Structures are given as structure tokens and as C-alpha cells.
Amino acid sequence: ESQLNPNYSFENFLEGDSNRLARSAGLAVANKPGGTSFNPLLIFGGVGLGKTHLAHAIGVDIKDKYPEKTVLYISAEKFTQQYIDSVKKNNRNDFIHFYQIIDVLIIDDVQFLSGKSGTQDVFFHIFNHLHQNGKQVILTSDKAPVDMQDIEQRLLSRFKWGLSAELQNPDFETRVSILKNKLYRDGVEMPDDIIEFVAKNIKTNVRELEGAIISLIAQSSFNKKEITIDLARQIVEKFVKNTKREVSIDYIQKVVSDYFQMDIDTLQSKTRKRHIVQARQLAMFFAKKFTKASLASIGSQIGKRDHATVLHACKTVDNLSSTDKQFRKYVEDISKKLSV
Ligand code: ADP
Ligand code: MG
């Protein structure tokens, strides 16, 4: 049993700038498992960006092209559990042997191995054996190897032997094509403007993107309502609210500078021009409000100012928004943009 899900195919894994490298490395590996320098192939990226899907797609494709090869997909969590059981039952060697005769081993979410030195140790030996014998290893992780914590150095260095390919947030066009493909496969029709509305508003997680479309379809058929932009808006709002997102200081600077139609360099510059100073102060105020960064860190990221300047900016924004109507509107507008 390979544990592969045939729906997670390459065909269904829509290509975009955000995944092109990882996807094509995956295809290369699937064409010549163990025969490329991408060994191991490590796919990393945030939640819901397609790591599991892509890992399966490689396995599914290999099974298609090389039916005689043994391919195994397993989560790092399950692998760990199996290892612990084998130790309890005194058959650790059987466990190792089982893994050493696999042709293509896919381990999902290897960050789960952090701090688990016994499992890391056994995986190290299995990895070396497979690699020496020209077998293919495919790993996924929520972080790049350099950012992984509590993983032994010798294992990390193995992770870096092959290729680490990142899955990034898909851009708008890719999000639209992912949705269209899903709707097509499910045999559901939906107006383009609604698909685009959803794709525009859910940006950082493909699973949520699909989830929003699924609830939209469910809601409309359950309540026998037409799928309208209003219904889409309600659903998207729920999705966006439920995902606690930490806005970054970079993002705040971008939103504020876009709002005032200046670029970020201008916002950060040393000029004393009033409207620029105000934009900078607003960026500092929102950084204080929406992030956990210290005043000093906010200052250093927004034009290399000190913490006293940031404190002063926050007070100024508070004062101005209670005395100046125009300024209060700025605060409200930007606040809305940041909390969408
Ligand atoms: P991860 O393992 O990174 O958390 P998944 O592989 O579980 O993410 O992907 C979440 C969902 O998004 C799955 O339903 C998957 O099919 C879908 N998905 C992600 N990327 C793509 C893509 N490029 N094309 C089509 N579907 C995608
Ligand atoms: Mg996954």
C-alpha cells in the first residue's frame, strides 16, 4: 500500500510563479526517481500551499511510469509513531529494514521530527541507506532547512544535499485558475466575477480558498439561494475573520504608502515635509497597534528611527485623530485596509 491519493495529481496541481520551481523539480524527480541531483527533494512552505498535494503528485506519477517501484507516502508523525511502536515491540530492526527496501520514500511534514532524537537517529540511517543505493527521498516541511529547529545538524546537512524548493503564496491569476479547475472538476458553474471576488480576498492559503468556494456552493444549495456577490462577501468575511493574521510591519508600510500614493523609500526618508511625516507616523502607529514588535524594533524598521520617535508618533496620531477630521478619516481608511 503506497498510501497515495490519486486525486493529488500533477494535472490537478495548477502551475504559477509561486510553485513553478517546486513543481518542475517534482516532475524531474518523477521522471527519474533517484536519478537526478534533487535527492532529497525538499518542498517547503506555509500551511495550505500544496506541499502534501505536490508530494503525492510525485508519488502518483512515479507509480504510473514505474509500476514496479515501491513508493511509500507517510507523514512524519505516523513514521514516528511506527518507530516508537517498533521499539516497544522489540522489532526496531524490522522497522528499519522495511524502510530500507523502498524505492521512493515520501515523508510529509518533517518539522514534526523536531526534538525527537530517537526518530531522527533512525531516519538518518534509513536516509543514508536509501541515498547510497540511489533511491529517491522526498520531504516536505513548513520551513526551509536553515530555519528548522531542534533537528540534528547531521540530518539538516542531509536535507540540504539535494534541492529545497519553496511553495509561495499563489498570485491572483493562479488562485483564479485553481478555483476554476476545482469548480470544473466538481461540475459546478459559477460566474467569473464571484470566482474573482473570492480569489481576490483569500490570498495566503489554497486550502481556505477552496474551503470558501465549497461553503459558498453548500450555502447556496442549502438555502436555495442564487450565488451572489453578497453571499460570497459574507462567506469570505467569515474565512478572513477566522484566520488570525499577523500583519507585518512591511505590509503596514506598503498599505500606508499606497494610500498616500508615495513609495516606501519616501515614507522612510528623513524629510520634514508634513504629509510625509504624517504618513510615517501613521505607519508607526499601526505597527504598534497591529504587531507585537517593540517600539525600538518598529523604529528601526520604519526609517531607522529610535523608540522615542515611535512613541511620539503614536501620541501624535492619537491627538490628531481626536482634533482633525481629515486625519481621523486617514486612520479609519487605513485601519479598514489593514483589517480586511
Ligand atoms: P499543505 O500540505 O502545504 O498544507 P495541501 O497540499 O494540503 O497543503 O494543499 C491544500 C489544498 O490546496 C489541497 O486541497 C490542494 O489540492 C490545494 N492546492 C494547493 N496548491 C494547489 C495548486 N497549485 N493547484 C491546485 N490545488 C492546489
Ligand atoms: Mg500538508
Describe the structure in your own words:
The protein has 340 residues and is an alpha/beta fold. It has three domains: 20-167, Rossmann fold (3-Layer(aba) Sandwich); 172-242, Helicase, Ruva Protein, domain 3, CATH 1.10.8; 249-339, DnaA protein, C-terminal DNA-binding domain (Chromosomal Replication Initiator Protein Dnaa, Chain: A). The chain contains 16 helices and five strands. The protein has helices spanning 20-31, 51-65, 76-88, 92-100, 117-132, 153-159, 172-186, 192-201, 206-222, 229-242, 249-259, 264-268, 274-290, 295-301, 307-323, 325-339, and strands at residues 41-45, 71-75, 104-108, 136-141, 163-167. Strands 2-3-4-1-5 form a five-stranded parallel sheet, sandwiched between helices. Helix 1 (20-31) packs parallel to helix 2 and helix 14 crosses helix 15. The longest helix is centred in the middle third of the chain and has 17 residues, at 206-222. The model has no long low-confidence stretch (mean pLDDT 94). Bound molecules: adenosine-5'-diphosphate and magnesium ion.
Cofactors and ligands present? adenosine-5'-diphosphate, magnesium ion
Question: What is the string of SSEs from the N terminus onward?
Answer: HEHEHHEHEHEHHHHHHHHHH
- Rg over CA atoms, rounded to whole Å, is 25 Å
CATH topology of the largest domain: Rossmann fold
